Amino acid sequence: MTIAIPATPASKPRKFGIDVSKPVLLVFAAILCVLIVMPLSWLVYYAFTDKNGAFTVANFYRLVSDADFLDPLLTTFALATLSALICCAVAAPMGWLVARTDMPLRRTVRLLVTASFVTPPFLGAIAWELLAAPNSGLLNQLYREITGASPDSHLLNIYTFTGLVFVISCYTFPYVFVLVANTLDRTPGDLEDASAILGGSTWDTARRITIPLALPAVLAGALVAFLQAMTLFGSPAILAMPAGFHTITTKIWSLFQFPPKPELAAAASLPLLVLTVMLLRAEHMVLGRRGYSVVGGKNSEPRIVRLGPWRWVMLTVAMLVLMCPVFLPYFALLNASFSKIASHLVSLNNFTLQNLHFVFFELSATSLALRNTFILGILSATCGTVLALVISYVTTRKAVTGYRVLGFLATAPVAIPGIVLGVGLFFTYTRPPFVLYGTLWILLIAFVTLAMPAAYQQMQSAFRSVHPELEDASRILGATRLRALWQITAPLLRTSLIATWCFVFVGVIRELSAAIMLFTSQTKVLSVLIYDLNESGDLAAISVLGLFMLIITFSVVALANSLRGRGNARRNVAIG
Amino acid sequence: MASVELRGLTKRYGDVAVVDDISLAIEHGHLVCLLGPSGCGKTTTLRLIAGFVEPSAGEIRVGDKLISSPAQSLPPERRNMSMIFQSYALWPHMTVTENIVYGLKLRKMDRDTIAKKLNAILATTRLAPLAERYPGELSGGQQQRVALARALIVEPETLLLDEPLSNLDANLREEMRFEVRRLHDAYRYTTVYVTHDQSEAMTTADLIAVMNGGKIEQAGSPEDVYDRPRSEFVARFIGSSNVVKGKAQDEARIGLAGVPLRCVGAKLTPGADTAVSIRPHDIRISAAQPQASENAVPATVTRQVFLGGSRDYMVELKDGTQLRVVTAAGEGIAQGSTVWLVLPPEKCRALMG
Fold it and tell me: Which domains does chain B have, with CATH numbers?
């Protein structure tokens, strides 16, 4: 190695050497605080004060003593527990089938589960109204047709607790499915081979190796399913309220209807918040010390179990399961879109395009809602992605002291149910200095906050895959931190950025539970419009709007997926 | 303990034969290395022996028992074998102890026996202080020893190792080579060891089978494959070798840059193009013309590097053939000098094909 390098004149320090990076980072931190800390503080304040602003716990006392509040709490608990159990019972075996067996059409099954994943739950609930309302439901009509039962009898009634559990499970089981299938995909076949060569039969291996390895995923999935079922607003609002019972979310909502009781709503929101935090902690602990990362070596092919003749039986079962969240509801929506009467099957003399015409050209609310939805979708996705980009940069590169707090704040909204955030934002922005209620801004804030954890997580894992030295190389040549971020890291992250953007966009256009608390007549969005139309019983228009929403969603998801596929080759270079 | 025999073993995926008509007999208690570059079919051969893959043709016997053939294949769990995987495949949800005793529990052994065997193996592999850790909390070398302990404790008839050292860093790898051999000598299981590292193979094996393109190019003792390579591939893959080409003049000579070169090995067909290998350190180099003129060739030094313990020359013959020559460090010959090379006939090996 050459030691005696002739001394070159040291390059002069850059003249305008003010690195604006730190202030910029601090601004982002402040934004995050405003987004999350303020609404939660107001929520807590309202929960613990009476009308005059004096400290009290009376609100909570009323919550647990009044059957009006206690019943919804208990209902919600039962609902969430049952849904989580059903999800696990259905999704875990299905996840195993697609990941570890030779069942035919495995890819198709995965795609169809993804389809039920992106279907907004409230849309699913409405579709099941079309299918299983006691009188007009298509399935009940079919039942009467076949059995010749009397016109007032019915097979299924979706407006029941059971119906609600069923519909919620339909759109929650993908969470468990995806977790289990991904875990099994990532579990190297070597682990099972090692058991086999030591004398473990297929059953031994399944019992002692495969199932224990997948168990944390199942448990984590169960917790997520529980959370989803607990915090959903749309499905219970559509199915439970007509049946005359409340869940905690619909109860909170009803406390804002006339006459409003915001302090009770705040008090009812807090248990939801606390429970969510606890469940997420529990999910974290499930993983525990064993650290389910796979150690060493390249991953080997997963071991595929041959089902023999059972493969077709299993496929049939899987398809039957998928009837509930996908085939039947989509059929019902399509049918209602093109039928003169939503509850009649489309036939040649019944077919009509009138519904499409009505929705897009006659219904005045449509264009406003579409405009609002797109504005909000694009703005939220852009703001959310940028915010997530900067924050994940700070936390992965440990750029400022206190970066952990930033990371925590960005992840915190995961524990804030949409409706709770809606309540908090309502308190925050109906009073000076920020009177944003009635504007699109308040919805933008809600959507960005809700999207933050997922966006942050995506960006963070993307950042981890780009070696920091790539950026250091740019800085040693004289680029500021921001410039390095912009010119080196950002291009490498492009596909992840676009994927995150799409992800937030899709999340925004289907969001209902925060929007329902914050909309006014001028700031209606698509999801709220659909909910409103359901109140007025206009199922044909809903079906058209719902399908339109699904088409947008699927296109954006497809776009994100195709980009991700193409981006991989470039990403790999960046990792190496 | 039993011998393992492969007969005409073939595995095809579609039209591609990954393992192509391999026959190999492994005496019991011997350690055989399957050595070859990546993609040569060595790991597939091992997985065929383990029973994770079923053969397209041929058979595998252990002792007198047929365990694999296209018609029937004993599942891995009934072969009484053990295997160490390249990834170690330690179960992350079990402690070191749980990992190690897994095979014994499957064999329904009683508690005391298990404890006794466990303590013995923990001592041998120096894992006792780590017994209650999870695999994720161990270093690479420790994980490797757990994998070894887990495989050995069941006292298998046959032990299979799939590149067990490739995930370790260089120092540890060297140490573990001898460890593998030591444990083999202690237990004397019939062992099949897959590696792409020739010094690993040299250190551990009784018999080395050099594989290329799904076939065994040569099988023999380490000395055999090093000193008497039978093909160009083996000559180049095991250590470095000069391979020169010329037309055979008679049964034992080829023409090299106008000089007849006598060599040993396969009988030559006069007139045929023939390859001959010679190791760089077997070539003698001198400034003056040597007295015995057999196999002496004039050449020019094109590069000369002092490596401390030796000197490394690149020389060029009249016809442009490049040869590498390694000599003692002693005296250097400057670049551009004309020199004489002597290629001792007993070191020149005519290669097949």
Answer: 4-231 (3.40.50.300), 240-350 (2.40.50.140)
